[in-house]
Amino acid sequence: MEARVFQKDWTGTTASAHQPSEGRLTAVPPKLSPECRIDVLFLLASSAGTTLEGFLRAKAFVKRFVQASLGEDSRARVGVARYSGELMVAVPVGEYQDVPDLLRSLDGIPFGGGATLTGGALRQAAERGFGSAARTGQDRPRRVVVLLTESPSQDDVAGPARRARARELLLLGVGTEAVRAELEEITGSPERVLVYAGPHDLFRQTRELQGKLCSRPPPGCQARSLDLVFALDASASVGPENFARMQSFARSCALRFDVNPDVTQVGLVVYGGHVRVAFGLDTHATRAAVLRAVSQAPYLGGVGSAGTALLHIHDRVMTVQRGARPGVPKAVVVLTGGLGAEDAAVPVRKLRNNGVSVLVVGVGPVLREALRRLAGPRDSLLHVATYADLRHHQDALIQWICGGERGSPHPHCCFRGGHSAC
């Protein structure tokens, strides 16, 4: 019989782990494995908006996480800071003797009160929150900031969050529904946010937080045949700087596939004032060649038409004559700022009717109605807050392509008349 471990919740009461509710215990998740090599800074809101009760609840959550997750063979190291108007690093990452010493330090962190300046706290945490743990090069573990807050920020969070992510910090957010949108902006992705409904629901998030801390990106469809085409919006509404970010995103995604004529083929189309096939499916036979070619794709400017680009892909890219392979799943990934998508519904329907899956990645304050029509009835629309945040959505794209469910390329596609059909 599996052993079950129990732990008191922050109220200090006890009950069965089978019925987790107020005043009840829940089963403690397993320890983090030795392969989970991370440095984690917990950043706790300690402002008047969060309240003393909310701050104590956040401390109790961190204590539970530490007790449940850190074992003698753990390679994960933890630090704790609290903030309101200023940041106080109570425990720099890894600077404690053992778990009991860390817990004693947690108990001693005082409540601050005052304003909720989350943006300033993120900036300071990135600069000095990791203490002597901030090693460089290959010796540096994955660095993570876990923000716990129940109060909206009173200063700008977007800029400090972008700069923190640019330092290769993974930002995760834990909070109530009232701060969900802000946490998504800070972390760059809804997938990096944990929302709890009430005090005791918070403690049920420990296992999910462990998964987000220790998960690694899926490897891609390494052993699965695929014809994949990226369509990048290179119009004036996107601009050359953001187009370069799209190129970087496409390169990063291509790295996750085994590019060769027997497994994954990759093509690239760019569109602005006109449509250009940067390279076709059968142009490059290696991943290195694809990466170079994506970097060399031209920025076009002008007024873009996603519909024209998709029709071009249907007629001149996803065909046997241009290298598409019979019986191989097919996908098109469209990256767009939203303008020029109004005319795309019919071309995208033609592609889908011929067995080609289409994912639309809309960036910024996109035209949601137009993109929703473009994405179709299936779960094939991914919204990204900013172009800089594209890199945080690679996992979602890979899962869509390789997951085998909900909008991923159909595994039983064939070809009729030069085009794919199911």
UniProtKB/TrEMBL annotation:
It comes from Lynx canadensis (Canada lynx). Residues 1-26 are annotated as: Disordered. This is von Willebrand factor A domain containing 2. PANTHER family: COLLAGEN ALPHA, COLLAGEN ALPHA-1(VI) CHAIN-LIKE. Keywords: Disulfide bond, EGF-like domain, Repeat, Signal. Residues 39-213, 227-401 form the VWFA domain. The keyword Repeat applies. Residues 10-19 have a biased composition (Polar residues). The keyword Signal applies. Gene3D superfamilies: von Willebrand factor, type A domain.
